[in-house]
Amino acid sequence: MEPVLQTILGAVPRATAFWLLIPLALAIAVAVAALPRGVRAPAVPVADDNRFAAELEAAAAEAAETAQRRRTEWLAAQTTVDEAWQAYEEASEAARRIAAATAFPLMSRRRKPGENVHRQRYLHRVATELCRSRQLSIAQLADVFAHRGWNPRLHPVQQEPILRNAVRAFRLEAYRKAVERERAAWRGAEAAAETLRTLRADAAAARLAGPAAETAEQHWWTEQWTPAELHAAV
């Protein structure tokens, strides 16, 4: 009987400790469940001591925007060149077709009174319509009205090929101007791309070198060239 009693008395402390641990575990579980989910400790910003590299990276970001804009302008200029050439080819074909259709000379006959006035009005009217549709320039229209290089007494059939040749000359000049603008846009795009490549390379080198490699000259550069000024310079 005595050994059994000793076993029972020895098990009492362990049972008591077990039952005391259960409420403690429940309290811990409730406390954990009450914590807000998705809350993270705010990230501590890391100070960037490499001022020169940071300035170069900001300038490179501005240069990237400028390079993209210049490339877009160049692509638009290319489209304008293609359209101008297509317009010139159409005008040239129309001039050849009209010249072939009016190759035969007109039969000379006595003009009626006032016929020269009608011919002049016809020339002025057709030239004005072509200028309004942007097939003749203002300067060409002024020459028509001033009769500089134009004979207003010619028959309308004779005036037609001359007008079409003037349209072809206008289209050719427009194409040449479009080519000049496209070349200028290409040079601007290339210069912006070269500036971007240089800035990115300098920024990478400065970042790898670390803040200790900064010199007085680099500090002067960062004070003189802000991203806005670099954007304007590019």
UniProtKB/TrEMBL annotation:
Keywords: DNA-binding, Membrane, Transcription, Transcription regulation, Transmembrane, Transmembrane helix. The chain crosses the membrane at residues 16-35. InterPro entries: AP2/ERF_dom. It comes from the Bacteria. Residues 35-105 form the AP2/ERF domain. This is AP2/ERF domain-containing protein. It comes from Actinoplanes campanulatus.
